[in-house]
Amino acid sequence: MNRVYCLSYDLRAPGKDYAGLIEELKKSPNWWHYLESTWLIYTSESAQQLFSRISGHLDTNDRMLIIKVSPDYSGWLTEEAWQWIKQYLG
What we know:
This protein has 90 residues and is of the alpha+beta class. The chain has a single domain (3-89), classed as Alpha-Beta Plaits. It is built from three helices and four strands, in the order βαββαβα. It has helices spanning 19-25, 47-54, 79-89, and strands at 3-10, 30-35, 38-43, 63-68. It has a four-stranded antiparallel β-sheet with strand order 2-3-1-4, with helices on both faces. The protein is globular and about 35 Å long. It starts with a strand and ends with a helix.
């Protein structure tokens, strides 16, 4: 069963190249990334499986939250963003 997770992070290693993290996130079946430190990931993985897949690209002082998204949402985004959210969350 596919679901959408909100993944938000603070990457704290100055000068570290996080390209590997971004590449790994983009391997997800579908994703949305219009806010600097926030991704919506559409996947069949559990939150723990998703974290395990990407955690090798983080430092111990980085912070990350992965939480399942419900159809109860609101905000101020572009029409393109809302279309993605409506497509994957209903």
